[in-house]
Write a structure and sequence with these properties.
The structure is a homodimer.
Chain A lengths: L3 E8 L10 H14 L7 H4 L2 E5 L3 H5 L4 H8 L7 E5 L4 H14 L5 E9 L5 H9 L14 H16 L3 H16 L10 H12 L6 H5 L6 E3 L2 E2 L8 E10 L11 E10 L14 H14 L8 E4 L4 H10 L8 H6 L16 H5 L6 H13 L14 E8 L4 E9 L3
């Protein structure tokens, strides 16, 4: 297996992009990525293949065949290109495909990317589009959608490990704080600042963050999850360039090495699982990635984990082995996952605050690891020169899990 | 790059399957594939990852996340799985992904598959669903759909090379004849037999095949293409198992070796192309596959080429280098592409007669090459022990092209 390096990343700001289609967002993300290749890249000469993660262009843009369309739009028409889909893990599937394509020796440099253009539809339309990541035979007829599915996980977690919604707000507050330091985050704001804006607008007062989070301005979505436990509806795109380690120094002296790759799945319908506080998909993916990388969870300096709902950051932090079973929530409450903690999670604000254009999320996680491991994360830079970073991107109710471990090169 | 072998294939009959969903069709195709592994396969133990090509489950079944769903349905929940999409080349994208995953050394055996469940929708619904393989900004607003796009190609071909619709019927007649010998074909019937049925039912007479093909029972769809120039709307699924050559003899003594892999793209909108009688995507894909395999078009004994419309078999036969420019139609008329010709094309009846459940088509082509190279194609077996077979599966108006070259092993 050939060694593979990450040589550049890029992304759009996440949020509403009313004037741009998915293909336009991909162009912006690619331009950003090109600007992050230290020694430059000639896209027409250097990029040998393109893989695009997009969950459902069919329902969001009434457009399919998006891999080939993107190749054309990016000025790369002619090269191998196709789309990968695994619900909210669609761009991690593109990354895995690109990884194998380079590791096999077939291509020496590929572009992997993700995009979702969601704000075309109203909330009902988005809810319907996202619902097809669940099982339309066994789940949707019951009327349940994703906030409800993750609410079931939260209920089981709280019951099993004696936690509460109040405890969970440690995740909300942390991720909004991190997002306030990330200019590309959709919510570029702490909870306190959001509360202040609402207070001014509505002529009300809040004693503190928790007073706001318990107010009617943070309404219940699916018990026990409230609005600020949920990631937002977003537009955005993300891009990464993968190159064979044999040629990566043509592009940068500071590549990241792709050290571990692991994928796993669980039942689509949560009714098929004996325990909602874990996913065998994540456990399988993490085990495979750790084994390939020859590292343990303790070796990981920073991680991006899929907090589509706050509870999922906690569950993943346990499935990935960062905390023992039932100890993840406590870890968050103790600040161990904050920027200055011993296991910083979602330093870019996570899906919660950065935004979650679903097809773009997996590679946006890679984007943050790139910045952090290279010491380029600005105000949110983790201290101590982190060397090993991990991403865990999931699809549906954690029915698909994809884990990547990246290491700072020492060239 | 590790050497990769094909160790078994399977497919459902193509046609209408009113009682089965896409996931059910995949199960049937997998069961068929398992039965074709000479020395047996233990799916739970042996299959390390799954890739599923499906063009648009979103629009046909209101279901996404189909890779993970398929893993569960096939009894493989837990393993790495995702979907690939490249319009009608979606399962060739799964095959390419699986090829790279094994060639890289990541997995020693993977299942690749394709499926489409189209007959849920009426003709208008199917036309709408398929239309998203074209460009929804630059083509669909003009009101054109695929029969119209391929009709433009036929018009340009006839004008440029002095051909006619009557000439093109050599392809229709050949593929229906081949399909009449294929029990899994949707139209398991020659044109003469279809004409006879209609004659009996309607109380009319036809002098011969051409008299029928020129009649109102073969109506114009988009000038110059008529109904029997178009592939049908179909349900179906196809499966192949790929294994590292290091372990393939555990499963069979007669594997096929994956000798060449090539992918390419062209503009999605045909307005971007200087010449409609060729696709740079096919030329790129073919060149890459021939170069990797170290063979020329003349070395290919049999090929499956994407005759979604009859004209496309002719165009692809030239883009693949089987015939000089402008000579493909003449080659078909002279019988050179028939079962007993020097370059048999679409020995299983092609998309035209076998059916075209779009996501399943690429791997169904591989299925036919498997049978022919192993001498197991029954009544339609090509004489002379063919050794090298090629598939060319395309998406949209040949905006995506994927070419595979398979060789009979000599173990």
């Amino acid at each position: 297996m050939k060694s593979v390096d990450l040589i550049g990343v890029g992304m759009t700001k996440f949020g509403k992009h009313p004037d741009e289609t998915g293909r336009d967002l991909l162009v912006k993300a690619m331009e950003d990525a090109v600007s992050h290749v230290d020694k430059g890249i000639d896209i027409k000469k250097d990029i040998k293949a393109l893989f695009v993660g997009y969950f459902t262009p069919e329902l969001f843009e009434h457009q399919g065949h998006i891999g080939t369309l993107a190749a054309e739009w990016l000025g790369l028409s002619g090269i191998p290109a196709f789309r990968t889909e695994s619900a909210c893990a669609s761009s991690s599937a593109a990354l895995a495909t690109g990884y194998w394509a380079v590791a096999s020796g077939m291509y020496d440099l590929v572009m992997v990317s993700g995009v979702e253009k969601m704000t075309n539809l109203d909330t009902t339309g988005v809810t319907d589009a996202l619902s097809i990541a669940a099982d339309n035979v066994f789940e949707l007829p019951a009327g349940i959608t994703f906030p409800g599915l993750f609410a079931l996980m939260a209920q089981e977690y709280f019951e099993k490990y004696n936690g509460s919604w109040e405890d969970l707000q440690a995740v909300t507050l942390k991720n909004h704080y991190n997002g306030s330091l990330n200019p590309k985050a959709q919510f570029h704001a702490e909870i306190a600042s959001i509360a202040k804006k609402i207070a001014v607008k509505k002529g009300v007062t809040f004693k503190d963050d928790m007073d706001f989070l318990k107010s009617k301005y943070n309404p219940l979505v699916a018990y026990p999850l409230r609005l600020f436990d949920c990631s937002p509806i977003s537009d955005g795109a993300s891009v990464a360039f993968l190159a064979s380690s044999e040629i990566s120094n043509r592009f940068t002296d500071k590549p990241l090495h792709v050290k571990g790759v692991g994928l796993g799945t669980d039942t689509i319908a949560v009714s098929g699982r004996p325990d909602l506080t874990t996913s065998k998909g994540t456990v399988n993916a993490a085990n495979a990635a750790y084994k390939m990388a020859g590292v343990t969870p303790d070796d990981i300096d920073i991680a991006e984990v899929h907090d589509c709902f706050t509870i999922n950051e906690v569950i993943l932090s346990e499935d990935l082995g960062f905390f023992e079973r039932g100890k993840g929530l406590k870890g968050a409450m103790e600040g161990r996952t904050s920027l200055s903690g011993d296991k910083p999670l979602n330093t870019d604000g996570g899906l919660k605050s950065k935004g979650h254009p679903v097809g773009a999320t997996g590679i946006a996680m890679i984007h943050e690891i790139w910045l952090q491991l290279r010491g380029e994360a600005g105000e949110r830079q983790v201290k101590g020169s982190p060397k090993l970073g991990l991403t865990c991107n999931v699809g549906g109710s954690t029915a698909s899990s994809m884990v990547f471990i990246l290491e700072r090169g020492e060239k």
